[in-house]
Amino acid sequence: MSDNDQTSQAATSQRTSAPGKAANAIWTSDDKLTLVRFLADKKSEAGDGMLFQKKTWVEASQMMTGIQMVGGPKTADACKAKWGCVSSLFCIFWNTDHMICR
Questions:
Q1: C-alpha–C-alpha distance, residues 38 and 60, integer Å
Q2: Which long-range contacts link 39-44 to residues 24+ away (Cβ below 8 Å)?
C-alpha cells in the first residue's frame, strides 16, 4: 500500500470513527523509518535483545506526535508494537556504532 493510499485510508478512518473513540494510528513508511532511526539513536538505553524501557517508548511517542500527519495518536504502546513488527523487517544487525536498516 502506498503512502497516498494510507493517507486516504486515514482520512476515511477519521471520518468514520465512532463518537468518543480515538482514531487508529496510521503508520506511513516515513513514520516507520523515523521510529527506527529514533530507536537506533537510543540503542545504548536498550537491554539485551534490544528491549527498550517504558521511558524510551514515551519519548518515541512524544517525538512521533510532533511529526504526525495522519491517523490517531502514536502512543507509547503503539510505538512499541510497531517496533515489534518492523524491527525484523528493517534491521539487518546492530553493531557497536549504529544500526543498519533497509
A1: 7
A2: 39/83, 39/99, 40/98, 40/99, 40/101, 43/94, 43/98, 43/99
pLDDT means per 10 residues, the chain with 102 residues, are 49 50 85 90 79 94 86 92 82 49 44
In this structure, are residues 23 and 72 in contact, taking their beta carbons and an 8 Å threshold?
Answer: yes
Q: Are 25 and 73 in contact (CB under 8 A)?
A: yes
Cell of 36: 527506527
pLDDT at position 45, please?
85
Q: Exposed (0-12), middle (13-18) or buried (19+): which is 61, by Cβ within 10 Å?
A: buried
Cα(75)–Cα(24) distance, integer angstroms: 10
Helix/strand/coil percentages in the chain, nearest 5: 60, 10, 30
